[in-house]
Structure formats: C-alpha cells, structure tokens
Amino acid sequence: MKFITVILYFLRIIAIIIASLLVFGLLLSEVLKLAMYFYLAKPEAKEIAYDLISYVEANDKFITNEMLKNYCKDYKDTDLQVNLNFIQKQNDRRFKINVSVQVYKWGMLSKNANIRTQSINLGEAPTNSIFVHCDSTDIESEIKNIKDSSEKSNDATFAGRNEKDESENIHSEFSDDEIIEVVVNYVNLGMEAIKYNDFSYVSVLLDPNGKIYNQSQDYIQTINNKGIKEELLDIKATVVNKVNQTRYTVKTYEEYKIIYPHGPSRVKGFNNEYLITTLNNQHFVINETLKSKEILNQKLIEHKETTDELLNHTCISCHGSFLEGSIGPPLYNLEKNTLKMNL
User: Which of 86, 261, 280, 325 sits CB 3.0–4.6 Å from 227 for a disulfide?
Assistant: First the structure.
C-alpha cells in the first residue's frame, strides 16, 4: 500500500511538472508572438507604408498592379507575409494604402500588423479607379518587365528600400523651391478642401501636432456652414528663412475672391507667414501660421456687357449683322416696321 502511495505521489509531481511546462510554453509562445509583432511586423509595416507613399509623391504617379506585384515579390522568400492594397479613385488625387504584415518564425505566426494611411498624388491621376492588391504569399511566378526605361530606373530606386541612408534626415540641405512647393500645394489643396468640404485634401500637408491642423479643420467647416465660397486668384512666396536644419519660415502674398451668399463678392489680399517643419524627419509639413495680415479688401466690380457686346452676343445671331432681319425681324426703325407688320 505504501509503495502505491509513493508511485502516485511521483506521478502527481510529474503531472504538475508537465502542466507547468505546457503553461510556460504557451506563455513563452505568446510573449514571442508579441515581440515579433512589436519589433518586427509593426516597424516593417510602417516602413512599407512610408516607402509606397514616398514613391507616389516623388514620382507623381499612381501605383499599377504590375508595379505593386513587383514590389511584393521581394518578400516571397522571407519570413514576412505582406499584404498590400493601393486605392485611388478616378480623377481624384487622394489615395489610400493599406499594409498588413505578419512574421513567421520558430513555427509561429505573429499577430497581423495593420497600417492604414493616405496622402495626395500631386501628379498623374488615374482615368479609372485603381484598386490594386498583392499578397507576398501568392505572387505570380513571372512578372513582366516594365518597358519604359525611366520607370525601370524609378522602380529600381523604389525597390531599394533596404539601403538605409546613414543620416536620419532625408536631406542635409533643402532648396527654396522645395520649401515653397509645400506652401503652394497647401494653399491650392486648401481650396479643394473648402470646395468639397473635405479636410483630407489638405491634412497630409499639415503637422498633426501643430496649431494649423485644428485651425484648418475648423476654418473649412465654418466656411461651408456659412455658405461662403473662395477662389484663389494669386499666390506669391517672397521670402524663405532657415530657422534650423529642419525648420523654415515662408512669407507669402495670397489673393482670394470671396463670394458671400448674401452681399457683394470681395477681393481680399493677405501677407502670411508659415512655419515649415519635418514630420518624423521624412517630409515637410506646415506647422503654424505665424502671421496673417489683410492688406487688400475691395468690393468686386462685376463686368457688365456694353451695348455692342450685348448686340454681338445676343441679337446678331437672329436679327442679322446689321440688324436688318434674318430669322428674327429687323430691329432698326422699329415703329415703321411694326406698323407695316400690323397692316
């Protein structure tokens, strides 16, 4: 009886050890999966999303099915499973990118790291809506080479995302034209954001942590609530000043036609100054409107047609070049002609 008790005791100890090992193994598996998610999958998903956005913005073109599949091909024999979607609607400069990355190591698959982002394509827009998808686990065995040599060159640069620049900054110096372009794009896209009451047109050019982000959002909403319409007449960037390696100020003159739902339209001009900075050392965004001074405010004088313009646009087509009568009756000596018609 004592012998059986000892055996049962040891069996119980063994069962506890096995159960403990199983629990420890499960916990270790979950810890490893979380580690793969936070330190491998998520950073890679962010890098891919930025890589794709940079390609569209740098080359002023949308991504085609062939180009995206070619991009995914690089991940086919790695421990990463990548799923990409690129969406850009017909004749719409906005585009969206969805990136999904999983890591497969030690017989385990990490949690899906999903990154959804959007930006503006300031160059070529598709004539038909683009919904491109590729999955690195299901890539076509053969992908046709892109014929155009310039596209090959661009794609080679695009595919070389693993070649890291030694510096964290995208450039050591920036030209005035690069800085000015940010402001000009912001002003022009701001007009579209107001027109369509859609903040996403301009949001990608703004620093989410800057004052201008919420101010622009509120301004777009207020203008549309009041039924006011704005039209950009002129913009000139006059001065670019460097604050430090990644911060600049730009002074502009901006002129607008402002159409009120009640009351006359007006032309207004402003001297503005913007603070430009980098977002995560990746691309320039507008952080703040430092100054805004109205220097022009005048009632818009609508053009009225002269008598000659009225005749040319309205009368001649029916009444003849000399108003002698054609499809319509003659318009000279009206009393005499009217009398003859009545008789």
Answer: 261
| Cβ partners under 8 Å of residue 98, min gap 6 | 84, 85, 87, 114, 115, 116
Distance CA 79, CA 25 (A): 22
User: Do the domain assignments include residue 163?
Assistant: no
Render pLDDT for 204-254 as a digit per residue (tens, 0 to 9): 888 888 999 999 999 999 999 999 999 999 999 888 898 888 889 999 999
**Concatenated DSSP letters of 95-156:** EEEEEEEEEEETTEEPPPEEEEEEEE--S---SS-EEEEEETTS--S--PPP--HHHHHHHH
**pLDDT recorded at residue 321:** 65
Number of domains within the chain = 3
CB atoms within 10 A of CB 254: 19
> What region does 150 belong to: left with phi over 0, alpha with psi -120 to 50, or beta?
alpha
The answer to whether 114 touches 45, Cβ cutoff 8 Å, is yes
Residues 327 and 285 in one domain: no
CA angle 102, 29, 22 (to 5 degrees): 150
Rounded to an integer, what distance in angstroms lies between the CA atom of residue 283 and that of residue 280? 8
